Amino acid sequence: MGLSSHTTNVSLLPVVRHWQHSRINAMSRIALSSVDRAQREVLPLDLALYHAARDYPGGAAAIAATTGRNATTLQHKLSPTHPSHTVNIQEFGEILELTKDRRILDAVHALVGDTTWQELAEAYTNDMPETLTTGIAEYFRQVADLAETWAKSIGDGVVTDQELAAIRLQVFRGIQGLLGLFNRATYVNQTTRGADHG
User: Fold this and answer.
1) Which residue in 64, 98, 166, 188 could disulfide with 74, CB within 3.0 to 4.6 Å?
2) Contact 145, 170 (CB under 8 A)
3) Helix, strand or coil, per DSSP, at residue 57
């Protein structure tokens, strides 16, 4: 005696549900690991653009609306699951201009190697001691984070690709912090040059 099609379908439902649940969990893990990675590593340029657009208010659709582009096309070009679609140079410039996302700049400088960028739009005040000390605490926090990551990474005698990427990002931020401190000192020097402290 054969099984009815209804009985067969009912018995497959738990298997299908399990497969769908496993697939959704795997996709969630990928998405979470991608978001986590975006916070602790210098990303490849395609992922930096994706995360910059994703974090922009309204996402890629808002960028497309602002620039007069097709939202679906731009979303496909930015999606890591559509590697055959890529952002062109004009779209790259528009995304960078709108988002001003430092992950994009980090990715570009990582491609070139041995370069860094410096954000010059820091808050300077008429209070010269405040201007000089504003960034010091943040800089030392960055150094402490780098030291902690460094210790964890080399503790087992192996530095993985992910650990190296995390160290690279923290080194970039440390160099930027030092340049920021120098820029503050330069600002105070230029602002107080006429003052005679003799």
Assistant:
1) 64
2) yes
3) coil
Is 0.85 topped by the overall pTM?
Answer: no
DSSP letter for each residue of 71-120: HHHHHHHH-TT-TT----HHHHHHHHHHH--HHHHHHHHHHH-S------
Neighbours of 56 (CB within 10 A): 18
CA distance 24 to 33: 14
Going by C-beta distance under 8 Å and a sequence separation of 6 or more, which residues neighbour residue 60? Answer: 53, 54, 71, 74, 75, 78
pLDDT tens, position by position, 76-129: 999 988 888 899 999 999 999 999 998 998 889 888 876 777 666 555 666 777
Domain boundaries, the chain: 11-112, 128-192
The rounded radius of gyration (Å) of the Cα atoms in the chain is: 24
Q: What is the pLDDT of residue 194?
A: 60
In this predicted structure, what is the pLDDT of residue 49? 96
Residues 6+ apart with CB under 8 A from 162: 37, 41
